[in-house]
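Entry:
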Amino acid sequence: MEPHSLRPAEDPHIGRSAVGKLDAITETVTTVLVAGCAGRGTHTRTRSDKHGFPRLHIPRQKQFFGYATGDLVRAVVPTGKKQGTHTGRVAVRATGSFNITTTHGTVQGIRHKHVRLLQRADGYAYTTQPERARTAAA
């Protein structure tokens, strides 16, 4: 059978794996890791208003209390209004009161002493999603 006459597989990842001679496929993918661009911050030291004038000062330091914006963290808050476990991307502040963006929204004002590092920021935002089957084109 000629290579150009082969139909693509129903699952897009299985279709990509069929390079060369393939006897059997023993495992299929159920979850896929998705990496999106998150960036590594900015070099500028001020935020400007709509006219371009400096509005507020940004500190020179990019890390506070050992954490940088974009780190993946887990915060276990024992008491108070924000009680519970929050896992997500952190936005740091010089005061030590961090924001954590989770899949359910942003939790503001989490103290740095409740936070534990899971993964350092590397410029990407990682998520997982279930593999969806591709429908056959008629």
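The mean pLDDT is 82.
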